[in-house]
């Protein structure tokens, strides 16, 4: 049964410091969540958030960081996982997700790939079919949330245009926030700082110089790949050194500027100009 596949909701371990840049977004999401969950009686209306933008830009990370900072349980589901070939099972899965979250309040439900769960009904040509029933179930659950202050929903998608407009009406996923690529050096630097927080950097590393070697328009996931690659290169060099000169194993892998340089040479940005033109 799908219910067994759902991870138990729990408070994530992603702190604000793990999220580089995106400070306006952090503030806006935090404000909305606090307003809806903590100050509900003062809140004008309930609203969910839809984070949209290219893959790897930090949508999941942001949602988890908000849950961590507010000490809220977090239940993450991917749209396609809920869909099931058996009649009635997909909408039952949606119901199950909300039941699980209700049993773990205060809780954020994070719907990744929301477009696959709630595609525009006009386009899917599925009137009265499974998608229609899934969307109806989702709408019923969302509308029920208005009375509860302890559950909050965040959706994420790369294709907001494919989502059924009924999902985006007031009181549902009505706050659309764009999460974009790191365009300028300043945002790239903030993300690099967050990603190398637990690194032991060699004294020759100045992250501003490293960032100056990066191409424009990178996602957080691209920068993560640069950092993890640089760390692996440093590890490889260290292993070579240890096997050659037999020196003792240090307490940490020191990452140097040439490790970053090599990692950057091998980097292929994941989001192309054409992809970005779409947003
Ligand atoms: P998808 O659309 O593919 O689900 P996403 O937008 O949810 O992507 P995340 O899963 O949040 O992207 O990001 C992928 C990884 O990239 C993160 O686990 C993290 O390592 C890194 N990352 C992305 N954005 C940032 C950021 N702003 N600061 C630090 N790390 C980041």
UniProtKB/TrEMBL annotation:
Keyword Metal-binding: no
GO biological processes: protein import into peroxisome matrix
Cellular component terms per the entry's GO annotation: cytosol; peroxisomal membrane
Domain of life the protein comes from: Eukaryota
Stretch forming the signal peptide: none
Name the UniProt record assigns to this protein: Peroxisomal ATPase PEX6
Family: Belongs to the AAA ATPase family.
Subcellular location: Membrane
Residue range from the parent sequence: 528 to 806 of 813
Chief location bin: membrane
Domain AAA+ ATPase, first and last residues per copy: 45-183
GO molecular function: ATP binding; ATP hydrolysis activity
Keywords: ATP-binding, Hydrolase, Membrane, Nucleotide-binding, Peroxisome biogenesis
Taxonomic lineage of the native organism: Eukaryota, Metazoa, Ecdysozoa, Arthropoda, Hexapoda
